[in-house]
Amino acid sequence: MDTTNCAVDGWVDAIPAPGPHGTARFDLTVRPADADTLPEDAPDTVVSCTSAAAGIVHELLTRIQPGDLLRVTGTMLQPTTPGEPARLTVEVLEVLDTALIPVLGDMVLDRYGDYCVIFDADRDQVPVFTALGQWVGLADNPDAITTLIDLHERVNGGDA
Fold it and tell me: CA 69, CA 98: separation in Å to the nearest integer?
């Protein structure tokens, strides 16, 4: 097996996952430096990364999210079978850019004390449930949510 010390810049593909014995693992999607000269359908390279360094593991499992641009430095192990991803043991991690925070434009779940409501951008009406999932009713608009909740509490003796 061939190993190389290197630094790689790439985007996190999915949420990093805990690995065995206090490690963390994630995939890094790497675009070639000459990506502008390649055909549009040219595949990106995926590097499978792991780290056992406590600080890096903490960072990966608590702060890193899909879309973050990272520079990782460590030991690259070339695959023994063609088509398998290269494996990189990360010794240094640097966040170059963070992903945009996703905005839920179509539907948003919100909490009103012991009640949950679902805002849908395409509708004025707002479904209301208890936090345990019991159907309360359909508010005609966002301003009518508290009225519906008050009515439900009066009818049910304050039990959400």
Answer: 6
Q: HSE (CB half, 13 Å, CA atoms) of 92?
A: 10
Residue 85: CB partners within 8 Å, gap ≥ 6?
A: 27, 45, 46, 47, 48, 79
Nearest of 63, 79, 74 to residue 12 by alpha carbon: 63
Dihedral angle over CA of 139, 145, 146, 148, nearest 10: 20
Contacts of 95 (CB under 8 A, 6+ apart): 63, 64, 68, 69, 70
Contact 70, 12 (CB under 8 A): yes
Whether the pLDDT of residue 41 is over 80: the answer is no
Residue 137 has a CB neighbour count (10 Å cut-off) of: 16
pTM of the prediction?
A: 0.58
3-state DSSP assignment of residue 5: strand
The answer to whether the beta carbons of residues 79 and 45 sit under 8 Å apart is no
Query: For 59-95, what is each residue's pLDDT tens digit?
Result: 999 889 888 999 999 999 887 888 777 789 999 999 9
CB 160 within 8 A of CB 113: yes
Neighbours of 3 (CB within 10 A): 12
The 8-class DSSP code of residue 124 comes to S
Averaged pLDDT, 23-37: 82
